[in-house]
Amino acid sequence: MQETEVSKADYWAGRYRKGETAWDLGAPCAVFQDALARGLLPFPGEPNQAPHLLTPGCGNGHDPEMFARHGYRVTALDFAPEPLANLRQRIEGEELRLATLCRDVFALTPADLDPVDIVLEYTMYCAIDPRRREEYLAVLAALLRPGAVVAALLFPLGKPQDGPPFAIDPDEYERQWSVHGLRAIHRETPRASHPARAGKELLMILRKTDA
Ligand SMILES: C[S@@+](CC[C@H](N)C(=O)[O-])C[C@H]1O[C@@H](n2cnc3c(N)ncnc32)[C@H](O)[C@@H]1O
Question: Cβ(23) to ligand 1 under 6 A?
Answer without folding.
Answer: yes
